[in-house]
C-alpha cells in the first residue's frame, strides 16, 4: 500500500463541520476560549517502538473518536482525535518518540480546532497503520491505539538466516543429507557435533511485552522483563550448539499477539517452541517452576486451566485489533492441534521439567496440560515454562538475579538438548 491521497474522513469535510456550527453555533462560540466541555482526560501516552511495528497508545478516561489518513512525499500519518484538548500529556508524546524509532522520525501535535487535536507523524518508511480502540481492561482505562506496521515487512526467514552464524564448512548441510534424514543412530551422538547435519530451528517466546507487563511482583518487577532476559540468555546458549539457530518471537519491549507468536514459529519452520513466563498467585507463598503442554481434552487441573485462561488474556491487555483479518486466520489455525504434536510436546516438557528440577523447587512434580493459545502450532512441539513465581518475594528476587537467570537458561538448554538427542526422528531436517 502506498500512501496515495486517501479520501478525507467524514469529520474533516466542510459539510460535516457546517452541520455542527448550525446546530450549536452559540454554544460552540461560547466555549472557544475555555476547555472543550466534554474533553476526555488523557491518563497516559505511551510509545512502543520495535522492528515489527511501532505502537502509540493514548489512555483516556472516556472513549476517543479518531480519523486518520496517509500523505506521501514525504510520508506522513495524519491523525485527528475528537473530544480532547491539547494538554501536557499529549504534548509529552513529542519527546517520547526515540531517535532510533524504526518508523517514526518525529511527531507534531497541535490543537486543530476546539475539541480536536491533530497529530502528524513524520515517517521513516512507508507504513500501514492500524488504528483501533480498546475498552477498559485490567488496570487500563480506554485506549486509542495506533499500530504503525511496515508496508514492506521483513521476511522472518531471511532475517533469521542473516543472523545465523555460518556453520563450519564440513557441517554445512547438503542436499544429500536432507534427502537422507538422520536415523536413530543419532541417539548415540551425545554432545559431539552431529555426524549427519541439519539445521535445528528453535523458537523462543518471551511472554507478554509492551502494553502487557504480565505478572507484577511485589517488588515492582515485571514478568515481561525477566522472561525476556532469560530467553536472551537461553538463545545465546543454544546458539553455541552446532547447526542450531534460534528465533525470538520478540526481542524487545513490545507486544506480540498470541497468534502472531505461533505464526512466527511456523514461518521459520521451528522444530520446537518454548514459551517463557513467570507465574503469579494471590498467595505470596505460592512457589516453584512448572512446565505445560497443550491438552486435547481439558486441563489437567483447575490451577492449570486458571493459568491458561490468565495467559490467554494477554491479547486483551496487550491489545489487538479484533477487526484485523489476521484474527480469522488465527481462529482457523487454533483448531488444528494434533495428538502427535501434544505427544511430542509432552516429551519435550518432561526433559525440560527434569532439568529445571535440579535448579529450583517444582510447583508440581509432573508436566501439566491446558489450552494455552500460544502452544497451538499444529506442527511444532510446544511447551510453556513458568520459570518461578514472581508473586513470591523470594522467587521474584531470584528471577531478577542474573545468576538465577543463567541457571534457568542452562537448565532449559539442557532439557532441550536432551529432547533433541533422544528423539531425533521427531525433528524434521531443514534447508538452510
Ligand atoms: Zn505469563
Overview of the structural elements:
The protein has 12 helices and 14 strands. The strands form 3 sheets. It has a 6-stranded mixed sheet, sandwiched between helices. A 4-stranded antiparallel sheet has the order 1-2-8-7, covered by helices on one side. The chain is globular and about 65 Å long. α10 packs across α12 (402-422). Helix content is 31%, strand content 23%. It is an alpha/beta fold and 432 residues long. β3 (65-71) and β4 (76-82) form a beta hairpin. Residues 1-33 and 167-190 have low confidence and may be disordered. It folds into 2 domains: 10-150, Immunoglobulin-like (Sandwich); 156-426, Aminopeptidase, CATH 3.40.630.40. Bound molecules: zinc ion. Zinc ion (ZN) binds at residues 207-208, 214, 223, 277, 311.
Amino acid at each position: 500500500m502506498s500512501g496515495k491521497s486517501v479520501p478525507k474522513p467524514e469529520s474533516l469535510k466542510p459539510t460535516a463541520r457546517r452541520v455542527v456550527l448550525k446546530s450549536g453555533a452559540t454554544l460552540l462560540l461560547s466555549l472557544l476560549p475555555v476547555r472543550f466541555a466534554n474533553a476526555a482526560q488523557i491518563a497516559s501516552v505511551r510509545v512502543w517502538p520495535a522492528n515489527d511495528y511501532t505502537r502509540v497508545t493514548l489512555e483516556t478516561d472516556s472513549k476517543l473518536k479518531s480519523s486518520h489518513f496517509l500523505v506521501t512525499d514525504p510520508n506522513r500519518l495524519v491523525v485527528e482525535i475528537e473530544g480532547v484538548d491539547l494538554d501536557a500529556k499529549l504534548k509529552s508524546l513529542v519527546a517520547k518518540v526515540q531517535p532510533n524509532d524504526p518508523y517514526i522520525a518525529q511527531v507534531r501535535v497541535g490543537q486543530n480546532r476546539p475539541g480536536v487535536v491533530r497529530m502528524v507523524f513524520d515517517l521513516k518508511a512507508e507504513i500501514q497503520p492500524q488504528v483501533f480502540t480498546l475498552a477498559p481492561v485490567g488496570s487500563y482505562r480506554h485506549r486509542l491505539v495506533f499500530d504503525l506496521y511496515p508496508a514492506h515487512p521483513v521476511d522472518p526467514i531471511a532475517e533469521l538466516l542473516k543472523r545465523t552464524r555460518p556453520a563450519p564448512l564440513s557441517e554445512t548441510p547438503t542436499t544429500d543429507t536432507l534427502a537422507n534424514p538422520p536415523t536413530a543412530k543419532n541417539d548415540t551422538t551425545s554432545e559431539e557435533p552431529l555426524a549427519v547435519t541439519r539445521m535445528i530451528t528453535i523458537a523462543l517466546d518471551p511472554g507478554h511485552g509492551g502494553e502487557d507487563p504480565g505478572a507484577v511482583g511485589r517488588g515492582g518487577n515485571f514478568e515481561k522483563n525477566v522472561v525476556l532476559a532469560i530467553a536472551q540468555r537461553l538463545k545465546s546458549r543454544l546458539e553455541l550448539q552446532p547447526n542450531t539457530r534460534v528465533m525470538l518471537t520478540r526481542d524487545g519491549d513490545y507486544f506480540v499477539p498470541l497468534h502472531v507468536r505461533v505464526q512466527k514459529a511456523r514461518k521459520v519452520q521451528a522444530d520446537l517452541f518454548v514459551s517463557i513466563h513467570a507465574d503469579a498467585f494471590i498467595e505470596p507463598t505460592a512457589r516453584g517452576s512448572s512446565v505445560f503442554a497443550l491438552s486435547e481434552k481439558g486441563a489437567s487441573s483447575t490451577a492449570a486451566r486458571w493459568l491458561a485462561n490468565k495467559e490467554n488474556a494477554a491479547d486483551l491487555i496487550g491489545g489487538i485489533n479484533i477487526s484485523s483479518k489476521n484474527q480469522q486466520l488465527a481462529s482457523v489455525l487454533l483448531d488444528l492441534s494434533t495428538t502427535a504434536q501434544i505427544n511430542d510436546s509432552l516429551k519435550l516438557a518432561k526433559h525440560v521439567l527434569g532439568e529445571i528440577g535440579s535448579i529450583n523447587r517444582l510447583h508440581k512434580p509432573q508436566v501439566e496440560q491446558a489450552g494455552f493459545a500460544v502452544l497451538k502450532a499444529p506442527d511444532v512441539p510446544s511447551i510453556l515454562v513458568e520459570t518461578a513465581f514472581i508473586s513470591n518475594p523470594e522467587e521474584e528476587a531470584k528471577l531478577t538475579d542474573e545468576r538465577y537467570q543463567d541457571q534457568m537458561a542452562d537448565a532449559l538448554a539442557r532439557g532441550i538438548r536432551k529432547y533433541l538427542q533422544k528423539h531425533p526422528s521427531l525433528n524434521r531436517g531443514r534447508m538452510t
